Amino acid sequence: MLSRQRAAQLVVVVVLVGVVLATAEDRKEFRFKVRKGASISVVNQYGPISVKAGARKEVLVTAILHSDKVEIDQGQSGSRITLLSHLLPGADATSGQVEYQIVVPADASVTLHSTTGPLHVEKLHGDVILESNTANVDLRDLADGHVHVKTLNGLVTLTNIVDGHVEITSLGGDVMLNAVSGPLVEVNSSSGRINYDGDFGGEGEYSLTSHTGDIEATAPGDASIDVTARSEQGKVISDFSLQPKHTSFPIRAGSAFAGTMGKAASSVRLFSFSGKIHLKKRQTN
Amino acid sequence: MTDARKLKSDKLSEADAIERAKLGDPLAFEALYNLHKRRVYSLCLRMTANTAAAEDLTQEAFLQLFRKIGTFRGESAFSTWLHRMAVNVVLMQLRKKNLPVVPIDETLETEEDAPKKELGGLDLNLAGSIDRMQLQRVIEALPPGYRTIFVLHDVEGYEHNEIADMVGCSIGNSKSQLHKARMKLRELLKTSRAEKAAKP
Amino acid sequence: MTCAEFEQALPDASEGNREFEHEQHLRSCSACRSLVADLNAISQQARALQDCGDPSPRVWNSIEIALTREGIIRQPSRGELASVHRFPSRWSSAWLLPVAAALLVTAGVVRYERGPGQRVMPNAPTTTAQVASMRPEPSPDDRQLIESVALRSPAMKASYEANLQDVNSYIRDAEQSVKNNPNDEAAQQYLSNAYEQREMVYEMAEERSLP
Predict the structure, then answer these.
(1) Which of A148, B149, B181, C124 sees the fewest Cβ atoms within 10 Å?
(2) pTM for this structure?
């Protein structure tokens, strides 16, 4: 008898909690049928957006709205999906928050805009275009597409991005590139640090430029690169012995170095106005 | 003699204009712009079929080029460099607008867009009698993905391997979509001609 | 070979990879012959298409304004312009010595004429420390932007003020660098990047990047 009463009380509590949660947060699901090469655009001022590859011919969206001060405008035109978190009067960064979890076909292209984020995309080979104000950006396991990231102050982390065109513009956010290679990798930072750890492969063009942010690039001892590094006011260090090459500017020791390694397959430019530049050799075990 | 007249009367060579532009000479920039604006604009217009967009993209292509003019060393022809930059600017814009850059093999296109499979089709032979104005009009009517490949290959003369690299598709895909674009144009031209012939 | 099979092989065949089978089919099938002739005609006419005319004058106006604002368009000195015509584009070392000597003599003459106690030569590089210490007030455009951000999202105002200071500082340093070394690739890259950053701040603030 006692245990039944206990069980009944527990059920009541659970139901009450559920009701409370249900009124505070609203969970919505959307399903869109798409064909190859779908594109998804999400504008969500407050809250995280996570996009992963999974479904073959559909886009699955799960959205958790934190209050009734925000609603989702969704639309579809062919295989083009748009989602907009529409803030109602009185919404703020807390009440206006929406959390998105989206599953898309692997060849889909994705465009995400957010102020606070964070933004996460993985395992796609379509184009990925992200814009963030302070949102942290985390991209991993992408291949073949164009990856464009613009951020004012969010931390940008790219991991295992291959064979694509990567362009990142960051004002104050640090940019961390791990195993990123392809025909083009370009980072334009102002005060954010740039940290590259990879092989500068793919016979690509790598350009890491900053105003005051330090640049640290780590490459293997057998990297095949044609590298130029310059800083107007910061220190420039290389762990490598480079084959010297002709340059159109004077090489001042400690402020610049230029040379080649191996077959010089990839072009690497490390420019900083006043940040420190260090080209490090990866330690092998 | 003012600089402007000197520039014109000297028939400033492109090479001189480039060197002067590197020094910031405004007339040199204008000369380079005038030399190449028509070709760049035509490319942008053909790929977008929209004059306002084409003008914006022309502006962007030249801006990008002039910002980097200091790095031009003459390894390739200036016009080639500019042209490639213009193509990339257009492709980037198409991507941003989520318009298909790589035309999709499976029928993303509607029934209306896909070329009809009428072999031999209408009884009007096109060969030797294609009106250029008409061709220009039907190119504009192509779906964006087809139009991109067709303009890059047949109008601008890029090879399939170059197109594949720029657009991000396979060489096979580029060939297949070029063929479909031509088939679609054929259908549009024949329909247009049949409509004209049917008018009293 | 059927017409359907022939058409399927056309994308490769039209690139000059026509096999014997295809040639045979073409000889025997007038419909496919007509198709191939039409497609070839379309391709040939496409190459001969005329240019589409000129863009409107506003395009050049906008380019000129942007380049002037970024300091890429500026009036070079007569000496710089003259050198484009007189000297080969790749300087040989034979030219360097007399030019260097002439510059040294000129520098010496100017210094002698100025005398002691006068400030440095007009084209001497200014250090960035001097530049940084002369931090100017925000421009009218920047002030307007900050006001508009403050109206929309008061919490973001301080952040945008800091962002604009950051980016304007970059522009100042880059402009000084270009002024000191007009032909330096790195200096031009900094300036281009700095303006790109500023454009990004404006876009984000005005939410122009949003669809």
Answers:
(1) C124
(2) 0.57
